[in-house]
Amino acid sequence: MSLAAISTLILLLLSSLAASSPAAIADDTPTAYEVLAGYNFPIGILPKGATGYELDTGTGKFLAYLNGSCSFALEGSYQLKYKSTISGYISQNKLTKLTGISVKVLFLWLNIVEVVRNGDDLGFSVGIASANFPIDNFYVCPQCGCGLNCNNVKPQCKVD
């Protein structure tokens, strides 16, 4: 075998090892936003800056991680708080047993426990009450601190 053939073989072996390394596999891991989209949810139900997630595809149990807690106002009337870890169960068109997300209603903070997609609407439940909103309100991710009005620049979620 010639020296050129041996070096080509070594390069092929090294490149196949690099392709199967954890770093290379991590590059193919979908983002939390892509996982949401895969279950038919708009990416804007999660604020900008999700740092990671865990998902048990067998049970639907998930954890989503933010870089710290997060709060913001939407349309001036709704205030939302996200803890640094959000958990629950995800299935097609449904998020259940949610923890880590709350909304201010009048003077009370209530936990959002379920989100259901029904056609072009999302229904948010706090247990004792629910409200529906058009899905197109959630195509853009809110940003911690300023929501959707951040110096007149719409925040974008990183989906790639």
Q: Give the class from helix and strand content and strand pairing.
A: alpha+beta
Distance between the termini: 44 Å
Tally of separate helices: 3
The overall average pLDDT, rounded, is 80
Helix content bin = 10-25%
Q: How is the main sheet built?
A: 9 strands, antiparallel
Low-confidence stretches: 1-25
Oligomeric state: single chain
Order of helical and strand elements = HHHEEEEEEEEE
How many β-strand stretches?
Answer: 9
Structural domains: how many = 2
Pfam family, one: DUF538
Keywords: Signal
Q: What would you say this structure looks like, in words?
A:
It is a single chain. The protein is an alpha+beta fold and 160 residues long. It has 2 domains: 29 residues; 107 residues, Roll (at5g01610, DUF538 DOMAIN), CATH 2.30.240.10. Helices cover 19% and strands 39% of the residues. Strands 1, 2, 3, 4, 5, 6, 7, 8 and 9 form a 9-stranded antiparallel sheet that branches. A hairpin with a 5-residue loop joins strand 1 and strand 2. The longest helix has 17 residues. The N terminus is likely disordered.
